[in-house]
Design brief:
Helix 2 (about 55-145) packs parallel to helix 5 (about 255-345) and helix 4 (about 170-230) packs antiparallel against helix 5 (about 255-345). This protein is mainly alpha-helical. It has helices at about 45, 55-145, 145-160, 170-230, 255-345, 345-360, 370-435, 440-445. It is rod-shaped, with a radius of gyration of 67 Å. The longest helix is centred in the first third of the chain and has 92 residues, at about 55-145.
């Protein structure tokens, strides 16, 4: 790279011809040795230290020549100085124009990166806002899961108050346990996703801050270079700064300068893409979570409805059997009454037959005969005794049957009460509570 020319801060001194010393003229005195010469002392003073005319002319000629050469040399110096001044002025003007053009190009480069940074800052800020909205949905969805979890645990606790034999691990309980486990897993997933969203928002803000600092430096640099580009020779706020004519050791190169902003934008773009993917993931998670919870809620409700239907059917059958038992009890009570009356009705014939036998036992002597009447009376008593024993045995059987019927009635009534309690718990307590289950929009975090 060619070294930049040093700006002229002073006008160049005109070229001058260096002064030189003229050789000393040594004049020799001509001695008159001819026949006309006079060597007398009277004229000796007039002849000493005098130039000859030829020397006088030569001296003048030399002066003319030196004057002419000096003028020519001065004229050439003036021409050269004028040419040098014009060339220096042209060079300075061209250098200033090149510097101004370079500043203009630099301004365009700065403006390009400044616009790219500003665009990235705005997009990253908008993306962070969208991610914050998704994070708010996650928080709402997490809060909304508290109601289903409370409903599921309350249903399980309420069903613990069922009485045997209805205290069974039925399909409803299995679905409720599955629902409670699903809600716990959903809450853990939402908490992890919330933490991930918070970390991504922090990264977005960090890279936005880096881009903002770079953008701020670009703004300041743009203003400085724009100010420099507006300087001219007629500017009143220019002055000498000799110490600034140097390169700073810490100064960046155009390549590292462009790479710095490019890397900042690249990292910000990478985080923006990660934020976009996370938002899509959050949207899918909330959609799937809300659908899973509502499907499980529907499964639990269906199990409850089926169980209540089974309980209603069992209760109706028990009530039908209870009605039959009650009727049978009534009939058996009437039968027992009839048996008792039949036994009582046999008392008079028994008394008659036994009284006859008793009275006939007082027949005298040979009259105490085992006649046909005696045999018939004894047979009658035996027949009556057998009938009474049969009636009493049947009475005992009927009474035992009545007691069994009463026990069955009590069991049926108890079982009906158990079924009624189970129906009340499942339908009036659990299913009524489940009507407060959140809707899909609330589970998805929209409300």
């Amino acid at each position: 790279m060619a070294q930049a020319g040093v700006l002229l801060t002073k006008e160049p001194a005109p070229q001058t011809v260096p002064a030189s010393h003229l050789p000393t003229k040594v004049c020799e005195v001509a001695l008159n040795t001819g026949p006309d010469s006079s060597s007398g002392l009277a004229t000796a003073g007039f002849r000493t230290a005098k130039y000859l005319p030829v020397e006088w002319y030569q001296s003048n000629s030399d002066l003319y020549h030196k004057a002419s050469a000096g003028c020519q040399q001065a004229e050439r110096g003036r021409a050269e100085a004028k040419e040098l001044a014009e060339r220096a002025a042209a060079t300075a003007q061209r250098a200033q124009q090149d510097s101004t053009a370079s500043l203009g190009q630099r301004l365009r480069d700065i403006h390009f990166w400044k616009a790219e940074l500003q665009k990235e800052i705005e997009e990253l800020d908008a993306e962070t806002g969208l991610l914050a909205a998704q994070k708010l949905r996650l928080e709402r969805a997490l809060d909304a899961t508290e109601v289903p979890y409370a409903i599921a645990t309350d249903n399980l606790q309420c069903r613990e108050r069922r009485q045997p034999p209805d205290l069974v691990s039925d399909e409803v309980e299995r679905e409720l346990l599955k629902e409670a486990e699903l809600i716990r897993n959903v809450q853990e997933l939402l908490k992890r996703t919330l933490m991930q969203a918070g970390n991504q928002m922090r990264l977005n803000r960090d890279h936005k801050e880096v881009c903002e600092m770079d953008w701020s430096d670009k703004i300041e640099t743009y203003n400085i270079d724009d100010k420099c580009g507006r300087y001219s020779n007629q500017s009143t706020n220019i002055q000498f700064h000799p110490s600034s004519v140097k390169f700073e050791e810490s100064a960046s190169t155009p390549e590292t300068w462009a790479k710095f902003s490019h890397d900042n934008i690249y990292r910000a773009e990478r985080e923006k893409l990660a934020s976009i993917n996370l938002r899509a993931l959050i949207d899918n998670i909330l959609h799937d979570v809300s659908e899973d919870l509502r499907m499980q809620c529907a499964a639990v409700n269906e199990a409850f409805a089926k169980r209540c239907e089974e309980l209603d059917d069992a209760k109706h059958k028990l009530e039908h059997h209870l009605k039959k038992i009650l009727k049978e009890i009534g009939d058996q009570e009437a039968n027992i009454g009839a048996l008792k009356q039949a036994i009582k009705d046999k008392e008079a014939p028994m008394k008659v037959a036994q009284t006859r036998l008793y009275d006939r036992s007082f027949r005298p002597n040979v009259e105490l005969c085992r006649d046909e009447a005696q045999f018939r009376l004894i047979g009658e008593v035996e027949e009556l005794t057998e009938s009474i024993e049969s009636l009493k045995k049947k009475l005992l059987e009927s009474e035992q049957s009545l007691r069994n019927l009463e026990d069955t009635r009590m069991n049926l009534e108890k079982e009906i009460a158990v079924k009624t309690n189970s129906i009340f718990i499942d339908r009036q307590k659990c299913m009524a509570h489940r009507t407060h289950y959140p809707v899909v929009l609330k589970l998805a975090g929209y409300q």
